[in-house]
Amino acid sequence: MVGSLFALLGAGALISGAVAADPAGTVIYTVSGAGGVWVAFRSCVMGVRIDSTGLTARGLGRSKVVPWCAIGTVDTGEGPGLAPAQAPGLVLKNGEQVGLGALASYSSRTVDADFALIKSLHATHVTDCLNCA
């Protein structure tokens, strides 16, 4: 929504001609409009996509593709207390940690179901894959 507001602000100022006499204003509103369009688009495609090749975690600024073979463990971040000890995510075989903050939800059942699905798909892949053995 914020991206759409910036896009409208930039487009409205450029279309109305309010900044036509000022080149700096034209640049500022053009950048504001383009940035707003980018933020609006990226916020629509954010999240985690799961398919047969692995996981794709898409954030506002970048995307990370993680093949099933590269995943060591799925870490839910659960700790001994009520609050998670760390952010949920993946621990890759090379030791790198990939956060899956896009799976965050106010419902712990939803998060638990999402991570149960990821764990089961990863376990199925490991048993069926010749490269993971």
Compact overview of the structure:
The chain is α+β, with helices and mostly antiparallel strands. 44% of the residues lie in helices and 20% in strands. The strands form 2 sheets. The chain has a 3-stranded antiparallel sheet, with no helix packed on it. Strands 4-5-6 form a 3-stranded antiparallel sheet, with helices on one face.
What descriptive keywords fit this protein?
133 residues, alpha+beta, 2 domains, three-stranded antiparallel sheet, 6 strands, CFP-6_PH, Low molecular weight protein antigen 6 PH domain-containing protein, signal
Describe the structure in your own words.
- The chain has 133 residues and is of the alpha+beta class.
- The protein folds into 2 domains: 43 residues; 82 residues.
- The chain is 44% helix and 20% strand.
- It contains 3 helices and 6 strands.
- It has a 3-stranded antiparallel β-sheet, with no helix packed on it. It has a 3-stranded antiparallel β-sheet with strand order 4-5-6, covered by helices on one side.
- Helix 1 packs antiparallel against helix 2.
- The chain is elongated and about 65 Å long.
How far the N terminus sits from the C terminus, by CA atoms, comes to 46 Å
How many domains, as an integer?
Answer: 2
Helicity, in percent? 40-55%
Structural shape: elongated
Number of strands: 6
The average pLDDT is 77
For the sheet with most strands, the description reads: 3 strands, antiparallel
**Poorly predicted spans:** none
Structural class by SSE content: alpha+beta
Topology of this protein?
Layout: H1 2-16, H2 23-44, E1 47-51, E2 54-58, E3 63-67, E4 71-75, E5 89-92, E6 97-99, H3 108-128
Antiparallel strand pairs: 1-2, 2-3, 4-5, 5-6
